[in-house]
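agent: user wants the full assembly modeled, not chains individually. Plan: 1) parse entity lines 2) check alphabet per entity 3) run joint structure prediction 4) return tokens. Steps 1-2 passed, two entities, 605 residues total. Proceeding.
--- entities ---
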Amino acid sequence: MEVLEARLRALTSALGVLALGMVLLGVVLPSGDDDGYTSLDPAAPVRLSVPSLDIRAPVNAIEVGDDRVLDPPADVLDVGWWDASALPGQATGSTVIAGHTVNTGGGSLDRLADVRRGAVVDVLTRNGVMRYEVRRTKVYDKEQLARNAVRVFGQDAGDGRLVLVSCADWDGTAYDSNVVVFADPVGSPTQDA
Amino acid sequence: MTRKPARGLALLATGALVALSAAPATAAAPVAQADATALTLTVASTPSDSGSFSSTHDGDKESTSGSNAPALSAATGQSFAQAGTLAQDARTRVEQRLGYAEACAGLAGDGATVVGVGEGGCLTPGQNVRLNAATVDLSGLRFVEAEFLAGLDQQLQDGLAPVLDELLPALSDGLEQALTGLGDLGVFLDAGVIQSQCTAGPGTSAGSAQIVDAAAYVEVDGTRVDLVALPVNPAPNTHVVTDLGAVTQEVLDAVRTQLETAIDGALGPLTGVVDGAEVLAEALGQVGEGLAPLEDNVIDILLNEQVQVADDEIEVTALNLSVLPAAQEFDVDLLRAEIGQSHCGPTGRVGDPAEPEATPDPPAPVPTSVPAGVETAAADGGMGAAGNLSLAALLALAGAAGVASWRRSLRG
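--- prediction returned ---
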């Protein structure tokens, strides 16, 4: 009888240790993701990729001037991340990236207006890739963009969405409008995604 | 005793100054905002809209801007809607020091009644409105002679050899005549009313869309071919994608008679020897292949599009339509139409001058202009950092080579 009790105590102790170990393991190891995506520690963007349009462009930080103009990088092959907008991976605000459309071709975002709803957009950061899914595309003329500036670029609202901006509506001498693509954050793809 | 009135006066003056300085801050910050746009069209990347009607409440009074009775012609230069009624309205108010906003916008046919915001919508339906989403030009369809023969077995090719020089031009002519008679295909939306509405208040917002008696269809030679019927009260962000595959058979039926006549005429005495039905099937098959892009998704429609900007801010678009690039092969203008955009919020609380809230850091100013287009890469662009580095390296190399040559020449 004593032997049985001793064995039961030993078994209980072993199970207790095992349970404690599993709890500690759960704390230490990262949790798995059912959908193949995980959260991303916010970090500045390094590269933009829109596979469906064959867009791949380095990202540089850009500022809004005193005149409230956001100028993309002078190099038309690059795109610019507005440095007062959200970092990719942030849960609030909007990450704003602007790039050139070149009438004769060769601009980083020449084909942005062709992007389809649901298309994947990847933004590479030092902490990994943040993936977005295109929700909608809008074209604003200059007056409309100014009128809707807070709604498009405002940082007080938003769920970490991506806002891509380029130009549209070539009139023979200049571009009269902006094409704006809004994309929802999906997460950072794990290896399974 | 003389000091007390002076102190009292000083206190009053200070209080007045504080109240005066606080007043602009409290009055300037809107406590409720709403705006509405009945129709925005983007044809070939050129946007136009019906203007917006907006309402803002600063805690003391409501102010509005824009027109809440836009004419359809305001969306100029478009063939999307020739007749109909547009409506856009917005209203803000303050109750118990809290801001509230509501807006509605939409499009209906002639005879629709425009009602003010707050009545559950902007419009009650009249006649149906017909919207021209796309015009498909089929006149570019051609027979490719080499492909036509490749589809036939050798025996049939041999049988046709004596009349081939007449047959292929006759088929091309027959197809062209048939397509000319058929004319362009019109892709239409027909609806009683398409409208959205929204409300926003402290910490809350909601929106909805109403789409009555709406369907997408194609007109082929005056015959209506239905594509899809749209739901009346669609759930938020209901996605409808439609192709024009349903019209392929209509087009084939329309060209069949002309092709039959062409084949009979070209075969002449060979009619008894060569199987004309097989030749016709191959000809129709080639026309069908030419129409294949219409089987792809051509029209993309999002109903009751809702963007929850914040708890107390929402944007609703009743119908967002895009003609997709798949249709470009048939000279279709890429068109985007957003019908019935309502935007409500954000809202706030009328500031209490006795207990002014702490002033937060001012947010970074948002851009109002993004000049992201240039004519040529050389105008504003460059070769990129890598290109510049390469050029500098080449220049350095050339300079070094020059110095070396010069020194060699000195030694010589």
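agent: reporting back. The beta strands of chain A are 37-38, 45-50, 55-62, 79-82, 93-99, 101-102, 120-125, 128-141, 159-170, 175-189. The longest strand of chain A covers residues 175-189.
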